[in-house]
Amino acid sequence: MSTAVTKPSTLQQLSLIAEREIRARLRSKTFLVSTGIIVAIVLAVIVLPALFADSSQTKVAAFGPSATAALERNPGLEQVTASSAAEAEALVRSKDVSAAVIDDAAVPAGFKLVTLSEIDSNLTLSLSVQPEVVVLEPVLDNYWLAYIVAIGFGAIFMASAMTFGGSIATSVVEEKQTRIVEILLTTVSARTLLFGKVVGNTLLAFGQIAIVGAAAGIALSLTNQGELLAAVGAPILWFVLFFTLGFVLLASMFAALAALVSRAEDVQSAIAPVTYLLMVPYVMVIIAFNKPDILSIMSYVPFSAPVGMPMRLFLGQADLWEPLLSLAILIVSAIVIVSIGAKIYENSLLKTGGRVKLTEALRNA
Amino acid sequence: MTTLKVDGIAKRFGERTVLNNITFTVPGGRLTGFVGGNGAGKTTTMRIILGVLEADAGQVFLDDTRLVGGNRGRFGYMPEERGLYPKMRVLEQLVYLARLHGLSAAAATRNATALVERLGLGERKDEDIEKLSLGNQQRVQIAASLVHDPEVLVLDEPFSGLDPMAVNVVVDVLRERAAQGVPVLFSSHQLDVVERLCDDVVIIAGGEIRAAGPREELRSRFAGERIAITLAGDAGWLRSEPGVTVVEFEGDHALVELDGITPDALLRTALDRGGVVAFTPHRPHLAEIFQEVVR
Predict the structure, then answer these.
(1) Are A57 and A77 in contact (CB under 8 A)?
(2) 8 A C-beta contact, residue A241 and residue A153
(3) What pLDDT does residue A54 have?
(4) Of all helices (H) and strands (E), which one includes residue B172?
């Protein structure tokens, strides 16, 4: 034949395989739908509270130096200066202000609080002189925020890893079941095929996480939650980095386990061990986000580091060298697990019929 | 011209020997039919040729090069169990496979488009494979084995599931490839198809090669002493004729074997009995040779 055929390089084949994986996933809509859902949830969590938060400050009229000083200690209250006690009371009656604070030398506080019809206990509390509070064993400053961030990292990690882990597993079994793998293996090595799949799905997972991270960042800045963005921004970037590397490790486990079976019906049970493993970081971070000891262990274990380390960074519990060390551990374990995964994959790919035993798949071919 | 040689292949699955000393040659430029019953070892042999399965003994050579490991990139292979990506479009899939074999994007597209047109799938080229009928999926499968301009073709049951028109198209395509010097090995259990198409035949039974060689040579070799006779009248008297064994009989036609009587003598008797329409030495069809060698 006239066609020039050169032996294709491994890199060319790998990128062709990765490209096919990406195209196939984009076409199947799973990626688009799952990304859409995750983005929608993240946006809802960030935007809705901001919309419903009562941003208008309570207006309080003030007359006299003690009253003015008391209000100035409360930045949440908007001060309306009255020129007399009577004017302050009039503002309350006309409902221009919620309450008035008027100097009264006869009472210990030096001022009195005037409301229209009900005692406003919040206002009363905020104007009261409070003792200095010392907490000997503090929980977090910002318990609920930390809780939401923990759920966020945990849930996105689990959802994305399962989506793309599941799709790489399905793709492996599809090739085995249809036997196209027999055609592919005449020209591609099993390793190239595996790495192409891992690269393709990792890029997709990275894309999804990056989109979610960017959406969270944009939503925070648009809703004037700049302070929160400053606190979460860097941990989100670390999360994307950790997740992407962590996914390489997970993807090769998914692929290796899927290669043990030959039918689509058996995929779920084959990948169940990794699926359970994925739930651990999610559950752990929710239980232990306020327990620094457990969290710091999590932040070094390769499977849970993508969740644990960003969480610690968010809480300000980790020095800068810590994520770097954890990243190094993650990379080394990824290399080890990917090479074990490749061996299992290589040894099982052409064995159809019953489920291949793991011990058999690990034996030298 | 390339030659594919299978030399002393043996394979056991557990206690069961499925292939024993399989040796045959697939010369370039010819179509070689590989026939055998179910479980005879056709697919196992082909998978070993492709390196998809490892042999316990024996070697496969392409000319003088021994094939080891994954160097089957210049092979075109159609596995027994049809396999393509169900959710990938016809043309896209063929281009992908061609590029994986090292063709440039342009050459891959050119080859894939030409094959799709040739095999009558032009209108379906942008449909997902799973939406095609089984016959059309089969055509895509054949295209997939050819799209990278392979130097050797190994096709497991390429004609099963094809209508007669499609069989003819595929045969033409395979002949063209053979004419370019490519050795073409295809298996089939449709002996009439093999007889019509192939130049060489390899017959396998019970994991052993029972006969191999050019089709016409085999037919002559197995011709034996049989004579096909068509008489002007009823041929029933042949049954009681001494020295004649009737193998087949139908009205005025009979297939006979002679023992202790010459063809001349029988022909004379027949002429005396009322006229002969045809009297020819019988060259067996592949089906008959097959019956005989696998026994």
Answers:
(1) yes
(2) no
(3) 56
(4) helix B164-179
Q: Is the dihedral of CA A352, A353, A357, A360 positive or negative?
A: negative
Contact A260, A356 (CB under 8 A): yes
pLDDT of residue A1: 43
| Mutation to test the B interface, candidates A187, A193, A263, most B Cβ within 10 Å | A187
Is 60 exceeded by the pLDDT of residue B225? yes
**Rounded to whole angstroms, how far apart are CA atoms B208 and B187?**
15
Which stretches of chain A sit within 8 Å of chain B by CB?
Answer: 1, 3-8, 12-13, 16-17, 20, 24, 27-28, 174-175, 178-189, 350
Give the integer Cα–Cα distance in Å for B138 and B84: 10
Amino acid at B78: M
Q: Helix, strand, coil % (nearest 5) of chain B? A: 35, 30, 35
The residue ranking higher by pLDDT, A75 or B72, is: B72
Stretch A70-77: mean pLDDT, rounded?
76
Only one residue has tokens 């969270």, namely A216
Residue A4 pLDDT more than 60?
A: no
**Is B53's CB within 8 Å of A350's CB?**
yes
Select from B52, B88, B144 the Cβ nearest to the Cβ of A24. Answer: B88
pTM over cut 0.95: no
Q: Which residues of A touch B82 (CB under 8 A)?
A: 178-179
Q: What is the mean pLDDT of residues A143-170?
A: 85
Distance CA A233, CA A236 (A): 5
Cβ of A184 within 8 Å of Cβ of B73? The answer is: no
Contact call for A1 and B83, based on CB within 8 A: no
Chain mean pLDDT for chain B: 88
CA distance A320 to chain B (A): 44
Confidence check: pLDDT of A243 > 70: yes
Judge: A183–B101 Cβ closer than 8 Å, yes or no: no
Q: CA B149, CA A282: separation in Å to the nearest integer?
A: 51
B89 secondary structure, DSSP code = B
Contacts A8 to B, Cβ<8 Å:
73, 99-102
